[in-house]
Specification:
The complex is a heterodimer of chains A (145) and B (403).
Chain A (H helix, E strand, L loop, with lengths): L2 H5 L2 H8 L12 E7 L4 E10 L2 E10 L2 H13 L5 H15 L24 H16 L3 E3 L2
Parallel strand pairs in A: 1-4
Antiparallel strand pairs in A: 1-2, 2-3
Helix pairs in contact in A: 2-3, 3-5, 4-5
Chain B lengths: L14 E2 L2 E2 L1 E2 L10 H14 L9 H20 L8 E4 L2 H13 L8 E5 L8 H10 L2 E5 L12 H4 L4 E7 L11 H10 L4 E4 L11 H4 L3 E5 L10 E5 L1 H6 L10 E4 L4 E3 L13 H17 L1 H20 L4 E4 L8 E6 L4 H10 L2 E2 L1 E3 L4 H6 L5 E5 L6 H18 L1
The chains are: A alpha+beta (145), B alpha/beta (403).
């Protein structure tokens, strides 16, 4: 498979076309906006946290295929997880897309491994994650810069 | 095609992602011909010294090279005198210089500065900074959907409060060539001074600064086949003489005591510290290179490429060209339905085609068209029809991947 095919896997293309949980979340307890000033991508993450666990999560905003698919898959992967588990997942994901570490129990997130060949796109893949971490920490904004 | 010049540019002979590099990001920066690279090398090998101060031969040699470069650039844009050419880091610094040294001292509360809807951030933010400080306002000359300035509305925007105007010659995100001679005329009818940002113009259009009549004109060397970190500001003699210095330091003074400093004459008054000597020489060499080919010939060649590329892009479903002005230069911005420009950029890159994807430092233009960004191809003298064909092929590939 070429580098390009590894980047734009069918699952990623699918999530870009039909993003999951792509709407406002009523009664959210946490919210943060992620901003990539370089390309203008903006993604907001909204969460409902119950007893330190994410009981629901949705996102709004627009971006490129990688940032949209990443946000979409994030919402599927973190539901039911605790803050600690999410932090671990984010670290693993960050290491995966920056090529620092092999895939370690990342589940579906492993499909973003192709990003490591495209350093300019790492920020796209991590934008929603930065917003998520900011939301959990109680901050309103995250930026990839 | 301008025959044989591609081989003048060493960087173009490389492969990117296994494909021959097709460089179509010229509005961001152009590649440098061997002559320019060699002139910089030769300067450091044979003539490096500090200028305007040494009594030794080498310093004189460096001074001559630097000052001759100024003269060459002055001739290139047909300035009245080389004393009106100030070396700066680039167009951005030139605009900041004018904002701070010319406009700022004149600006009072509620005064207004007019810029246009299609300015690069470099021709927005310096004005915002001084407006904020002085409680003055920015007024915006609007554009139509084709990306042309609506000159009819200029009369309504100009008022007694207008203290300055700053408009780009060519839009970096739309390619629009603005009717600057007409705009300058209107400004002067109202006794308003005007700066023209020529960063995207000098590499495509022959410039006769006296005919244009602008009070200030600026450009960056690196978009003109020259090195980065060098550019020029042209200013009307009287204005430059009246303006206070922009920065203080060595070389911009005649004498210094702790009580009083006497500033040097123009242009040295605006060139504090050791300047970018090799940059000035490199830019001068780039101008020689352009002169040898002929700017008219480059202009015609790029127009043909732009026309061909626009025609081919328009044939593809779901592709929309952003910026359809009657008079355009070398810049082709476009969007593809349901494909983000960043993804277009990555797919192009995998085919060796280098374009820019983003907002191009023109957020207000993106907001005007309600788009997050565009893909932008921009042509230079060394591009050819084959490059355009590869661009079009890559657009089709992007549609196929995301289809």
């Amino acid at each position: 498979m070429s580098d390009l095919d590894e980047l734009y896997l069918e699952v990623i293309i699918d999530h870009n076309k039909n993003p999951r949980n792509n709407e406002k979340l009523e009664n959210h307890t946490h919210e943060a906006k992620g901003d990539n000033p370089l390309c203008g991508d903006q993604i907001s993450i909204q969460l409902i946290m119950k007893e330190d666990k994410v009981s629901d999560v949705k996102f709004t905003g627009s971006g490129c295929a990688i940032s949209t698919a990443s946000a979409s898959i994030l919402t599927e992967e973190i539901k039911g997880k605790s803050k600690k588990e999410i932090e671990k997942l984010f670290n693993g994901f960050h290491n995966l897309v920056t090529g620092n570490e092999e895939n370690k129990d990342l589940g579906k997130l492993a499909i973003f491994e192709g990003v490591k060949k495209y350093p300019a796109r790492v920020k796209c893949a991590t934008l929603s994650w930065h917003a998520l971490m900011a939301a959990i920490e109680g901050n309103e904004e995250a930026t990839t810069e | 095609m301008i025959k044989g010049i591609e081989s003048d540019f060493p960087v173009l002979s490389q492969k990117v992602n296994g494909k021959k590099l097709v460089y179509l990001d010229n509005a961001a920066t152009t590649q440098k011909p061997k002559a320019v690279i060699k002139s910089i090398e030769r300067y450091y090998n044979e003539s490096n010294a500090n200028i305007h101060r040494g009594v030794h031969a080498l310093s004189q040699k460096a001074t001559d090279l630097y000052e001759n470069s100024r003269k060459n650039i002055s001739n290139f844009i047909n300035a009245e005198s080389e004393k009106q050419i100030i070396f700066v880091r680039g167009a951005t610094e030139a605009i900041n210089l004018v904002a701070n040294s010319h406009v700022r001292p004149l600006l009072n509360q509620n005064d207004e500065i007019i810029i246009s809807q299609m300015e690069h951030h470099a021709n927005i933010v310096p004005w915002q900074l001084i407006c904020e400080e002085r409680n003055a306002k920015l007024r915006i000359l609007p554009m139509n959907q084709r990306g042309e300035l609506i000159l009819d509305s200029l009369g309504k925007i100009i008022s007694k409060k207008t203290k300055f105007m700053a408009i780009n010659h060519v839009s970096n995100s739309l390619g629009t060539v603005n009717p600057i001679e007409e705009i300058v005329k209107i400004a002067h009818q109202h006794k308003i001074k005007i700066l023209i940002d020529g960063a995207q113009a000098v590499q495509h259009i022959p410039i006769d600064i006296q005919k244009i009549g602008a009070d200030f004109y600026c450009f960056s060397g690196h978009k003109l086949y020259g090195p980065t970190g060098i550019g020029i500001l042209y200013g009307k003699k009287q204005l430059l003489n009246e303006m206070p210095p922009y920065q203080g330091g060595g070389d911009m003074i005649k004498s210094v005591t702790f009580d009083e400093t006497v500033y040097n004459d123009v242009p040295h008054k605006f060139e504090a510290g050791t300047p970018n000597i090799s940059g000035a020489i490199g830019l001068s060499t780039a101008i020689d290179y352009i002169r040898e080919i002929g700017i008219e010939k480059i202009s015609k060649h790029e127009s043909e490429l732009l026309e061909y590329a626009s025609k081919e892009l328009n044939k593809i479903d779901n592709v929309q060209i952003i910026g359809n002005a009657e008079n355009k230069a070398s810049v082709l911005s476009f969007v593809i339905k349901n494909i983000h420009p960043h993804d277009i950029g990555t797919i192009m890159d995998s085919n060796g085609v280098a374009i820019r994807a983003g907002k191009h430092c023109t957020d207000p233009v993106m907001d005007f068209y309600c788009i997050p960004a565009t893909a932008r191809a921009s042509f230079a003298a060394y591009n050819n029809k084959d490059d355009v064909d590869k661009l079009i092929k890559s657009v089709k590939k992007a549609i196929e991947v995301f289809g």
